[in-house]
Amino acid sequence: MNKRQLTKFAIYAIAVLCAALINEFVIKYVKKHIHEQGYLLVLIDMLIVVLIFAPAFALVSKYTKKLSKAYLKTSKKVSSSKNGNLLGFTVAIIILFILFAFLRHNINVIQDMKTMIS
Length: 118
Description:
single chain; mainly alpha; 4 helices; 0% strand; flat
């Protein structure tokens, strides 16, 4: 896999994970304010998924080339080594992992790290 394909994959992965986090946040908000259970909640959940993921994929496919170039430039500026893209992707995945753990699984990674260090 060449660098351009890896960058494109990284952008898609980050976009999908961000869309999933936004979806989880909206679903929690809806569940808090809509006290309806059953089929209506299922329909609302489906509508929210479509409203979040469809634009996310359209945006990603439309701007992939621009994002790839900007991502490559930024990663190269941040890291002087050849692994600048890998560093940028790794940082994004770590941040998304922390957010996923907190929002979707109610696990406070930062607090757990502080406990392990202390």
